[in-house]
Amino acid sequence: MKIPFREIEEARKDPGAFRIKLEKMQAQSKTPFIPQGYFGQLRNAIYKYHSSKDPVEGFDYLKLKLSKFNSEYRKQEMEKQYTGT
């Protein structure tokens, strides 16, 4: 996801509120915000973690969403990125 430089501090201070702001902006645009790819699911898992403050809940969410994809290599890469290993 590309975040304009002028909005980075806002995103760091409150990721959940920033995500809601982005979703509202996308809802108003012609193309709705539908994260379908690997990185979109990783991003949503991170948001899930930030909103619940539970890393296991975020990781479980990621595994559930990645189960719909075929590439085992890419799934493992997304899991590594989530765990930071």
Topology:
Blueprint: H1 8-13, H2 15-28, H3 38-52, H4 55-66, H5 72-83
Fold and architecture overview:
69% of the residues lie in helices and 0% in strands. The longest helix has 15 residues. Helix 3 runs antiparallel to helix 4 and helix 4 runs antiparallel to helix 5. It is an all-alpha fold and 85 residues long. It has one domain. The model has no long low-confidence stretch (mean pLDDT 84).
Key terms for this structure?
single chain, 85 residues, mainly alpha, 5 helices, 0% strand, globular
Summarize the structure.
With about 80 residues, the protein is an all-alpha fold. It has helices at about 10-15, 15-30, 40-50, 55-65, 70-85. It has one domain.
Class based on secondary structure composition and strand pairing: mainly alpha
Give the distance, in angstroms, between the N- and C-terminal Cα atoms. 21 Å
- Principal-axes geometry comes out as globular
Rg is: 14 Å
Question: What is the helix content?
Answer: 55-70%
- The residue ranges in which pLDDT falls below 50 over 5 or more consecutive positions are none
